[in-house]
Structure formats: structure tokens, C-alpha cells
């Protein structure tokens, strides 16, 4: 397995990933929070600051999409509740998951680049980026935890694939039940 900054340091305060089942993802609450202007604006500002800090670091991404194929690549992506809310606010589709790969990655591209989670922004396979990714990830995750408290959105930090599976199933069910 390749080293990956998504695997959190188990000694870090509150940054340890949680294991939950697809059915336990609070999809309705996430959709509700995704409609709040304060949530959208706060996350937009947060990502702008992340992108600014990341741009100051060495390393580059050629966006081939290989690291979005988690099973093949050998790593996981973890996301917080607010990141999912922002993704939902900016995303018109929640595709069904058919393999251990992000359903928004195809044609060697990310199709939700503006709303992609923090881990996607900060991960570079470029060896020049290996020194700074871990410390900056922990710093930005701490800011995100504070943001959950400020916005009163319940915090979680879970596998992205569990979340996108839950979103895909929920939107399919919603479409079916509205027929
Ligand atoms: S959101 Fe975009 S960058 Fe992140 S895993 Fe999915 S396709 Fe890749």
C-alpha cells in the first residue's frame, strides 16, 4: 500500500476517522445544511484559504485521476460533514457507485473540482509535496472542526466512498418515491 496523507495520525486530537455504515450517513441532515447560506459562504472562504496555502507549497498535480481510484491506488479519502454539505450545494448529480473509485472521476478528470473535499486539494503524488502535506492537513482539519462548532453542524470524519454511496442511494430513492 502506498503512503497516504488521508490516513490520519491516531494520536491526533479528534482527527481520527470514524467507521460508519452507508445507512448511518445522515443524508437528510446534510442536504438541509447544504441549503444554508452561512454554511456555503463559510466553506467557500475556507477552501479559498486552503487553496491559497496549498499554492504556496512545492509540488504539482497533473490531475490524471489515478488517485481518485482508491482501490487501485491503495489509499482512502476521508471527509467531514461540512465538506459534504458544500459538495451537495454545488453538485447537481449524486452518481451511483459501481466500484471503489470516486464516481466524479472519469475521462481522467475531476468533474466537481470546485467542490472537491480538502483531501483532494491537498494530496499530490509528486515527491516534492511529501514533507508539508501531513502537517498542513492536520492544521486545516483543526480549522474545519472549529467551523463545525461555529456553524452548529454535527461533525464526522468518514470514508468518502461510504458517503457517496449513501448520497447515490438516497437520491435514487427520492426520485423513485416521487414517481
Ligand atoms: S472529488 Fe474529484 S478529486 Fe476528489 S476523489 Fe472525486 S474525482 Fe477525485
Brief characterization of the structure:
With 179 residues, this protein is mainly α. Helices cover 48% and strands 6% of the residues. The chain has one domain (23-170).
Can you lay out the helices and strands and say which pair or pack?
Layout: H1 27-34, H2 37-55, H3 70-73, E1 78-80, H4 81-90, E2 105-106, E3 109-110, H5 118-122, H6 130-151, E4 157-159, H7 160-177
Antiparallel strand pairs: 1-4, 2-3
This protein binds iron/sulfur cluster.
Residues 68, 77, 102, 104-105, 110, 112, 116, 120 line the site of iron/sulfur cluster (SF4).
Silhouette: globular
Heteromolecules bound? iron/sulfur cluster
Tell me, rounded to a whole number, the average pLDDT.
86
The portion of residues forming beta strands comes to 5-15%
- Which sheet architecture does the biggest sheet show? 2 strands, antiparallel
User: Total helix count?
Assistant: 7
Q: What is the distance, rounded to the nearest whole angstrom, between the alpha carbons of the first and last residues?
A: 45 Å
Going by helix content, strand content and strand pairing, the class is: mainly alpha
Number of domains: 1
Order of helices and strands: HHHEHEEHHEH
Give the C-alpha Rg.
Answer: 16 Å
Q: Within the largest sheet, what's the order of strands?
A: 1-4
List how many beta strands DSSP finds: 4
Low-pLDDT runs of 5+ residues are 1-14
Amino acid at each position: 500500500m502506498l503512503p497516504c496523507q488521508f490516513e490520519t495520525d491516531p494520536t491526533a486530537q479528534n482527527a481520527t476517522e470514524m467507521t460508519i455504515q452507508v445507512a448511518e450517513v445522515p443524508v437528510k441532515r446534510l442536504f438541509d445544511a447544504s441549503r444554508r447560506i452561512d454554511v456555503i459562504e463559510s466553506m467557500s472562504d475556507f477552501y479559498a484559504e486552503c487553496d491559497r496555502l496549498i499554492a504556496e507549497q512545492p509540488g504539482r498535480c497533473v490531475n490524471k485521476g489515478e488517485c481518485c481510484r482508491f482501490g487501485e491506488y491503495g489509499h482512502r479519502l476521508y471527509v467531514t460533514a461540512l465538506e459534504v454539505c458544500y459538495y451537495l450545494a454545488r453538485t447537481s448529480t449524486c452518481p451511483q457507485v459501481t466500484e471503489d473509485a470516486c464516481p466524479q472521476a472519469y475521462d481522467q478528470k475531476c468533474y466537481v473540482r470546485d467542490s472537491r473535499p480538502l483531501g483532494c486539494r491537498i494530496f499530490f503524488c509528486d515527491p516534492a509535496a511529501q514533507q508539508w502535506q501531513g502537517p498542513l492537513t492536520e492544521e486545516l482539519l483543526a480549522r474545519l472542526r472549529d467551523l463545525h462548532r461555529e456553524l452548529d453542524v454535527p461533525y464526522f470524519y468518514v470514508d468518502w466512498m461510504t458517503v457517496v454511496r449513501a448520497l447515490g442511494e438516497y437520491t435514487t430513492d427520492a426520485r423513485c418515491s416521487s414517481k
